[in-house]
């Protein structure tokens, strides 16, 4: 079940409203549950990039109308923990928390 999402904000034509973007993020995370790590970044204009890296090194990514801080908060609520940052970058790296 998706986490609650913020109310949609007005956006320019062709851009997913915020609520839709969070649903797309939820679907992306569901499709890539087995990913070894998730990295996130943004362009400082509220366009975020989420990249999933699988065991075989294959990468899948999605661009969303959510900034890095919004994506980071959503990942923490969804059971991920930040494990580091990419050197010389604003990108953050997350892994799914494992149950003890």
From TrEMBL:
Top-level taxonomic group: Eukaryota
Taxonomic source organism: Mortierella isabellina
Protein name per Swiss-Prot or TrEMBL: Uncharacterized protein
């Amino acid at each position: 079940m998706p986490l609650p999402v913020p109310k949609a904000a007005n956006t320019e034509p062709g851009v997913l409203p915020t609520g839709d973007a969070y649903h797309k993020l939820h679907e992306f995370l569901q499709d890539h549950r087995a990913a070894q790590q998730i990295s996130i970044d943004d362009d400082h204009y509220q366009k975020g990039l989420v990249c999933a890296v699988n065991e075989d090194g294959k990468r899948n990514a999605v661009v969303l109308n959510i900034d890095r801080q919004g994506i980071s908060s959503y990942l923490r609520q969804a059971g991920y923990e930040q494990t580091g940052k990419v050197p010389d970058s604003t990108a953050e790296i997350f892994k799914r928390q494992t149950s003890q």
